[in-house]
């Protein structure tokens, strides 16, 4: 809902619990008025007449108050928009008009030939913001930087910043600390979203898990990006973010050309960090993730079981075992195509390896289907090994700088997806592949960052960064449209490409290559701050975890850890004993029972994974599921009861595990005792309102 003042200069966007307001002065300065609890248009208008601070000393009254600070004029904050033409640099805009269409507010400004439109759309309590720029003039305009939005927080003391940092196999680690004067910048200059940060920040002053105001911002972009959180000299806080890390040039807009930024979404919540997460989850399920109402199947993935050593019969044998334990989707990972017997060769040649799959993929896919499972495969379309037919035929199709080394990471180079011939090649290869066998699922990987992002012969090679992402999105969109039954997983060496942009065209993500069930609890805790369990793939692999840390853990602990998301199995089932397979079957059956609650329910983080007892609760209608893990028990220290949340205090809840009936108030106030004890124990508790 958008309310507009009579003079057409104050706008109020309204969500179910919050509102957002902005105002245009007579001098065409676009000022931020309000982002927080619901207010009326009259309140916004009253805020609009409050004077800006006067010029004092060296400070600009505009700084910290503008919706979209451009470069130029009396502004010293980090500009959201920085452009240059042959004649000048910066922007001096004049308001053109506003429009509201399908709930989207558009404010149009013009600076000579450049038309700048700010877009606002409220979805639930999430405000989506983005900018579009059109060069209607007859000379080039270089976009040095065009952020999607700048967010302004209300005046408060002692802001605290939370975000997710990490690295390969240790993504999504939650960290928070006081925001101080200056800027905190997170992002990626790697060409993909990156393992190092998820594009999300949260700011609060005194929120707890379930109480208090939390502001959050999340970017929907799968290339290089930047979010800068600034505490300005007067202590006001602004957050600006968009595509690209540096300000050294995004695109050259030729006359008639345009650029649309990714969406930078913002959420205000007064439900603490838990409430904010639930609102983000609801938003993604309702507006971002395709077919979010559909359950994601339990999958088996061959990677940790067979790595590159793949053969049709061996995969068929694994498939039989996977079917026995109740797996619903069997995915053959890397190694099925071209000359791909190691990471040294084959990327780029998307036809089945003739020694391994002499009859193509269809016979294996048919066997998998006959076992009652869906069939999936792994691809990494944006890459090429120098040892491949593709590279030998088209060495100029990769990103490279003439006269410089082509940096091989994991023995591979990045294809220049900005090239139309590369786009067409990939479309043909993948469309043919998906038509060649009954394939239901594609795990789409991306295993190295950009290092030599050059494009010889192109006058503005810089655009490769942005165009790569647009080409990736277009390819995914085209494949999804042509093969509507196929689901896609976003993977980038684990969790290197997780953001709202890729999520709008993939069905789930590979959270991390770290499949150690204990390490995973911390990763999952961070991940849940912004993204729902419905997309968070988690596999049960072998113990000890020889991939990573040699930690040994029970099948119980591994399963309960993975059941917090989209359950998968990634262990070498050929080596699992009958006893283990029987136990696995039990857990898979249990997961299928609780799946609707886990994948579609509201999530409450009862206790973070900080060493002792941790737990997550999911609530959907009358059903509640609690997953709890005891990392280590100290002698003499009792395991605390778990105080549940979101329950009706006057209702009764039956525990499916014990048959006991508890009152909602007791479960919330006194908590539920688990039978957890010792080290690395875990449990699943189901409660139903009766
Ligand atoms: C990285 C992924 O994260 C793994 O799961 C696996 O698919 C390998 N790539 C295959 O090369």
- Count of DSSP-assigned helices: 13
- Tell me the CATH architecture of the largest domain: Alpha-Beta Barrel
Question: Which ions, cofactors or small ligands are bound in this entry?
Answer: (2R,3S,4R,5S)-2-(hydroxymethyl)piperidine-3,4,5-triol
Share of residues in strands: 25-35%
| Shape designation | globular
Looking at how many chains there are and whether they match, the oligomeric state comes to: single chain
Query: Which stretches are poorly predicted, pLDDT < 50 over at least 5 residues?
Result: none
CATH topology of the largest domain: TIM Barrel
Write structural notes for this entry.
The chain has 690 residues and is an alpha+beta fold. It folds into three domains: 220 residues, Distorted Sandwich (Beta-galactosidase, Chain A, domain 5), CATH 2.70.98; 302 residues, TIM Barrel (Alpha-Beta Barrel); 83 residues, Golgi alpha-mannosidase II (Immunoglobulin-like, Sandwich). The protein contains 13 helices and 37 strands. The strands form seven sheets. Strands 6, 7, 8, 9, 12, 13, 15, 16, 20 and 21 form a ten-stranded antiparallel β-sheet that branches. Strands 22-23-24-27-28-29-30-31 form an eight-stranded parallel beta barrel, surrounded by five helices. Strands 32-33-34-37-35-36 form a six-stranded antiparallel β-sheet. Strand 30, helix 11 and strand 31 form a beta-alpha-beta unit. The structure holds (2R,3S,4R,5S)-2-(hydroxymethyl)piperidine-3,4,5-triol. The site of (2R,3S,4R,5S)-2-(hydroxymethyl)piperidine-3,4,5-triol has 11 residues, from loops.
């Amino acid at each position: 809902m958008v309310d507009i003042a009579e003079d057409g200069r104050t706008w109020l966007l309204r969500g179910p619990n919050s509102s957002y307001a902005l105002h245009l002065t007579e001098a065409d300065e676009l000022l931020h008025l309000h982002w927080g609890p619901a207010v009326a248009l009259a309140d916004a208008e009253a805020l609009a007449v409050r004077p800006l601070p006067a010029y004092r000393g060296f400070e600009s009254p505009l700084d910290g108050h503008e919706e979209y600070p451009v470069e130029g004029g009396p502004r010293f904050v980090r500009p959201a928009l920085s452009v240059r033409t042959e004649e000048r640099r910066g922007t001096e805009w004049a308001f053109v008009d506003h429009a509201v269409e399908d709930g989207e507010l558009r404010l149009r400004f013009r600076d000579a030939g450049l038309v700048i439109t700010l877009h606002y759309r409220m979805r639930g309590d999430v405000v989506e913001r983005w900018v579009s720029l059109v060069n209607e003039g007859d000379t080039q305009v270089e976009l040095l930087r065009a952020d999607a939005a700048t967010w302004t927080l209300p005046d408060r003391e002692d802001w605290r910043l939370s975000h997710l940092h990490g690295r390969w196999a240790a993504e999504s680690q939650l960290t928070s600390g006081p925001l101080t004067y200056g800027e905190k910048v997170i992002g990626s200059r790697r060409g993909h979203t990156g393992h190092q940060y998820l594009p999300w920040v949260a700011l609060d002053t005194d929120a707890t898990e379930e109480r208090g105001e939390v502001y959050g911002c999340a970017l929907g972009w799968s290339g290089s990006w930047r979010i800068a959180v600034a505490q300005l000299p007067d202590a006001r806080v602004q957050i600006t973010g968009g595509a690209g890390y540096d300000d050294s040039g995004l695109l050259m807009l030729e006359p008639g050309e345009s650029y649309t930024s990714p969406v930078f979404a913002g959420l205000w919540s007064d439900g603490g960090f838990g409430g904010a997460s639930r609102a983000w989850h609801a938003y993604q399920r309702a507006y971002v993730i395709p077919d979010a109402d559909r359950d994601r199947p339990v999958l088996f993935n061959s990677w940790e079981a067979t790595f590159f050593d793949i053969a049709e019969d061996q995969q068929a044998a694994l498939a039989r075992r996977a079917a026995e334990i109740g797996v619903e989707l069997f995915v053959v990972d890397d190694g099925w195509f071209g000359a791909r017997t190691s990471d040294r060769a084959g990327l780029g040649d998307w036809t089945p390896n003739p020694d391994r799959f002499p009859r193509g993929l269809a016979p294996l896919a048919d066997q998998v289907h006959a076992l009652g499972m869906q069939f999936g495969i792994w691809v990494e379309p944006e890459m090429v090994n120098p040892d491949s037919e593709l590279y030998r035929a088209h060495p100029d199709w990769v990103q490279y700088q003439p006269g410089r080394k082509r940096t091989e990471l994991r023995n591979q180079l990045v294809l220049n997806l900005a090239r139309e011939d590369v786009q067409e090649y990939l479309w043909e290869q993948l469309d043919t592949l998906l038509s060649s066998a009954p394939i239901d699922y594609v795990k789409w990987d991306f295993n190295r960052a950009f290092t030599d992002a050059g494009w010889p012969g192109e006058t503005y090679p810089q655009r490769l960064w942005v165009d790569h992402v647009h080409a990736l999105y277009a390819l995914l969109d085209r494949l999804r449209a042509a093969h509507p039954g196929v689901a896609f997983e976003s993977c980038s060496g684990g969790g290197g490409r997780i953001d709202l942009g890729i999520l709008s065209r993939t069905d789930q993500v590979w959270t991390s290559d770290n499949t150690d069930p204990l390490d995973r609890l911390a990763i999952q805790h961070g991940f849940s701050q912004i993204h729902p369990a419905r997309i968070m793939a988690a596999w049960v692999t072998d113990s000890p975890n020889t991939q990573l840390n040699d930690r040994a853990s029970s099948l119980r602990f591994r399963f309960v850890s993975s059941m917090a998301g989209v359950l998968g199995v990634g262990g070498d089932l050929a080596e699992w004993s009958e006893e283990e397979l029987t136990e696995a079957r039990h857990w898979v059956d249990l997961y299928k029972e609780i799946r609707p609650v886990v994948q579609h329910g509201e999530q409450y983080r009862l206790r973070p994974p900080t060493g002792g007892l941790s737990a997550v609760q999911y609530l959907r209608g009358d059903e509640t599921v609690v997953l709890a893990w005891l990392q280590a028990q100290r002698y003499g220290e009792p395991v605390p009861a778990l105080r549940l949340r979101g329950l009706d205090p006057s209702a009764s809840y039956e525990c499916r595990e014990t048959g006991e009936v508890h009152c909602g108030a007791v479960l919330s106030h006194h908590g539920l005792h688990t039978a957890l004890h010792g080290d690395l124990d875990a449990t699943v508790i189901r409660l139903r309102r009766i």
